[in-house]
Amino acid sequence: MAKKKDSSGGLMSSAGLMRYFDTEETSITISPKTIMIFSVFIGILVIALHIYFKSGTA
Amino acid sequence: MSNGEYGFKDRLAPILQRFPAVERPAIHVHFKRKLGWTIAVLILYFVLSNVPLFGLSPDSIDLFAQYRAFFAGASGSLLLLGIGPIVTASIVLQLLVGADIIKLDLSNPRDQAIFQGGQKFLVLVMIVLTTLPQMVGANPYIKPDLGLAASMGVDPSVLWWALFIQIFIGGVLIMFLDEIVSKWGIGSGVGLFIVAGVAQALVTGVFNWQLDQGMPIGIIPRWIWIAQNMGASELLSGEGFRFLLISGGVLALITTIIIFLLVIFFESTRVEIPLAHSAVRGARGKFPVKLIYASVLPMILVRALQANIQMVGMVLARKGNTLLGVYDAASGKPISGLMYYLNPIYSPYDWIPSLVHQNYPDIATWQIAMRLGCDLGLMVIGGMIFAVFWINTTNMGADAVAKQIQRSGMQIPGFRRDPRILERVLERYIPKVTIIGGALVGLLVVVANMLGTIGNASGTGILLAVSITYRLYEDIASEQMMEMHPMIRGLFGKE
Q1: Scanning B11, B243, B444, B463, which has the fewest C-beta atoms within 10 Å of its C-beta?
Q2: Number of helices and strands in chain A (H, E)
Q3: What is the ipTM of this complex?
Q4: Residue B80 to residues B42, B52, B68, B366: CA-CA distances in angstroms?
Q5: Is the pLDDT of residue B375 over 90?
Q6: Residues of chain B positioned with their CB less than 8 A from the CB of A38
Q7: How many CB pairs below 8 A link A and B?
Q8: Which chain A residues are Cβ-neighbours of B485 within 8 angstroms?
């Protein structure tokens, strides 16, 4: 029964600025791994640009 | 509901529903995996906030400098915008939905989808709206490195676009990283980034040995410096005591600790409404109405509103329009006009008359008092208003909570099992507690900023960090409870 208490209380404690609901997802979904890999790729790309053009700050 | 409203929603729905979203876990994610995702996102966040933007001129200015502690991100990095666009988008959404300008029933899946798409669309708009004003004009804040453009043999406009695209991608990545944490991790990404930013500010505020005006910045190296360079008789005089309190960081340390304790005290102060299950005898629970029921997140919205007002003033002043206020070129702070009064108080140097006059002898004492009054009024009233909007958009109002409790099969012992009865009981506490809590947090933030905090983490920053961490702890506790159930089931011979 403790679990029931949590589901009413837990709902609000974790609310962030953005809200995501359980229902009705969009047709386009991305897996979290894809986003992580893409982020790392972008980071590496920008650092590579710095090194290639020797802009110094990297 | 009128026909027009249906038409409006129907037209928007297909566009807003098409926004890409992070996949939702199909099965229960184990606590250890959740922790793994959260830590992975945190590491990625730190890495990205240390990747400098390609093509950025070294004499660019960080417009968000004063708000860094809770806007997260890092100056001149891929994550230049931090959570700024998310916060600003949230303000707009709170105003539209929380104040019932756009009527959305957030328990209805269709409206949920519209809300969800709408907030992402707004974040994208805000990424552009907060980046462009910093990049256009005769002397923009963010400018391309002309030397680099020349050595690459391209037009500076190429680098301008490269910068814009990098900042845009950084903003979008923050948005998706937040979604990953919300769906696969613990708490929310925004909360995580705020805590990370504030924690970083606190650590540097304590240990940083780099010099600022001849004294180390961190309070521990600073105390060592004071002990080595100043005599006891010098420190024990009235003047020396004040020096120790303000410049020595003693006051900041005390304030930081007091806010820390106060937030925990507020978080644990609550009205508990007893609940009992209607069918299962002996199954009891309670619904807590915390003193800061609406959480401290609405505070960040008020602060962001102030930041955005300042941004408008700064951009205008830079263009030579001083209608709203004049800015000091060296510090980037407003020194007169409307913007001076609307600028929040950050430290004792902003309101103790003798300290203000050290830097700005022209500002009269009544002006300082008026600025303090404006800040206090804005934070207390703003805190109350946004707290009320917040509970409306997060389904924490008396009616929504009553429905949730009803659905879980619980009731208040001694009352008829009816959501309307529940609502009437909750209505006694929730609106009052929300408003008192909002005002209290607003007051606390201003007082904390007046006294100064360690590492300039700001009152808002520390308040947010402590409260988010506390709720994260509660989340982890309830996560672990859920992990316990299969084990308990296992004890009884079931899988």
Answers
A1: B11
A2: 2, 1
A3: 0.80
A4: 16, 9, 10, 37
A5: yes
A6: 173
A7: 187
A8: 3
